[in-house]
Amino acid sequence: MSDGYRRFLRPEELSRIGKLEVRARHIVEGFLSGMHRSPYFGQSIEFAQHREYVPGDDTRRIDWKAWSKTDKYYLKLYEEETNLRTTLIVDVSESMQFGSGAMTKYEYGCTIAAALAYLLLRQQDAVSMVSFDDAIRSMVPARSKRNHLHALLATLDADAPKKKTDLHAILRYVAEEKTQKGMVVLISDLFAPRESVFKGLKLLRQRGHDVLVLHVMDDQELDFDYSGTTKFEGMEELGELVCDPRSLREGYLAAVEKFLAELRRFCSRNLVDFQTVRTSEHLDAALRHFMNHRIGMQQSVRN
Question: d(Cα 182, Cα 210) in Å, to the nearest integer?
C-alpha cells in the first residue's frame, strides 16, 4: 500500500484535534461508556468482548479475573453494548476537484473524513466509509480497531474525483443498508438537485440516524473574487464560459446565499447538523466550531 494516504492525516493536524470528542446528539443503538449509552443497557447477558478501562468507566464492570492474569483493567462488554456505528459518506465527484488554494475540495473533504475516523476509532467506535460520485465508488465495512484507519485512508487515496453526483441514490442506499441506528456524516459540496439531497437526508432521519452534513466549499465559490476576463470551465459536463466576472458577481452571490439558506433551513427543520466549511479554514478550527455547535444543540434539546 502506498504512503500517499498519509497526506490526509498529518501529524500536526492530529496534535490539534486530539482533544476533540465526537458525540452523537441522539440516543443510538450503541454504547461507549460515559458518552454513547445504549437504550438496551443492562438487558443483555451474552458476553461479547473485553474493552480496556478508561477513566470515567463504571468500576463495577471491571473483570477482576482478567486483572489478576494481566495486571490491567478490562471491562466486560455484552452483546447489546456494542459501540456507536458511524458511516462516513465522502463525495468524490468531479466538482470536488475544484480548488483555488492549497487544497481542492476533494483533498479537504478527505482530510475531514480522516480526522473524524481517527477520533471515532480512538473512542473505540465502529467506522465504515462510502465514497461516491454518480454511484458508489468504494465501501469499507464497519470496524472499531485502530488499525482499521489504514483501510479507510487507503480507500480515500484510491478515489480520484470524476463523474457527476447522484446524492439521492447514495443516501437511499445507505439508509436501506444501515438498519442499525447510528451516526451518518455526509462530506460533500452538495452540487446536486436540491430536492434529491433533501429526500435522501430526510430518509436517513426517518430511519433514526443522527445525521451530520459538512458542506465543503472553496473560497472562490463563496466569494467569487475574480477580476478581468476569465474563462470558467464547467465540471460534470457543464461546458465553458468566457466573461467579465465582475458583471456576474452580484447575481452569483445572491444565488449562492439562496442556496445556502435553503440548505440551512431544511437541515434545521429536520434536525440535521449542518455546517459550511471553507477549504482555507484550518481543520482543527472547522471541527471545533462544529463540535461546539453540536454541544449547543444537545443542551437546547435537553432544556
Answer: 6
Would you say residue 18 has pLDDT above 60?
Answer: no
Residues 273 and 136 in one domain: yes
Q: Are residues 134 and 46 in the same domain?
A: no
> Would 20 be classed as within a structural domain?
no
Least confident of 23-27, 97-101, 264-268: 23-27
In a domain, 51, yes or no: yes
Which residue, among 208, 207, 186, has the nearest Cα to 263 in the 3D structure? Answer: 186
Give pLDDT, residue 36.
42
Domain's final residue, options 67, 82, 97 = 82
Same-domain pairing of 243 and 167: yes
- Residue range 256-265, pLDDT digits in tens: 999 999 999 9
Domain count, the chain: 2
> Is 134 in the same domain as 47?
no
CA 78 vs CA 40, 42, 50, 51, 291: distances in Å = 10, 9, 9, 11, 29
Residues 76 and 89 in one domain: no
| 149 alpha carbon, distance to own chain's centre | 14
- Rounded CA separation 36/175 (Å): 21
Task: Give tens-digit pLDDT for 133-174.
Answer: 888 888 999 998 878 887 887 777 655 666 777 899 999 999
In a domain, 100, yes or no: yes
pLDDT mean across residues, the chain:
76
pLDDT band at 255 (very low <50, low <70, confident <90, very high): very high
Residue 191 resides in a domain: yes
CA atoms within 13 A on the CB side of 80: 10
Give Cα 53 to chain centroid, integer Å: 27
Residue 142 DSSP label: E
